[in-house]
Specification:
There is one protein chain. By secondary structure, this protein is mostly helical. The chain has 4 helices and 2 strands, in the order αβααβα. The relative contact order is 0.10.
């Protein structure tokens, strides 16, 4: 019985010690940021978005999937233009990152506004 309690305590201690280490993976970026780090963050987000888009494209007709991919590539190109402007001097400031974020939001659109995810409890 005593060994089970000690084992449980040690297991819990290990889990709680590992939680802060895992929490560091999603830290907020601090600015100014090196251009290479910023570019890496943008590229990883674009890769995740591409995976999500490809999953969606598999459920569409070939013509719709082609149109979706073209729209996605056009949006990525717009974001990359802004990223190139931001990284031109080797560092990225918060204002430059906000400009990139603004373009990314414009490209992505606001497809949830007014839909089923709008304010809950509001009667029409």
């Amino acid at each position: 019985m005593r060994s089970k309690i000690i084992g449980t305590v040690l297991a819990l201690a290990t889990v709680f010690a590992a939680v802060p280490a895992m929490a560091g993976e999603h830290e907020k970026p601090s600015f100014p940021m090196p251009a290479a780090t910023f570019r890496q963050r943008v590229d990883s987000r674009q890769a995740k978005a591409r995976e999500h888009m490809e999953k969606r494209a598999t459920k569409l007709t070939p013509e719709q999937a082609k149109e979706l991919r073209a729209k996605f590539d056009a949006g990525v190109a717009k974001v990359n233009v802004e990223v190139n402007k931001a990284t031109a001097d080797g560092t990225v400031t918060k204002d430059e990152a906000d400009a990139v974020r603004k373009v990314a939001k414009e490209v992505r659109g606001h497809h949830h506004r007014g839909g089923k995810h709008a304010k809950r409890g509001e009667k029409k």
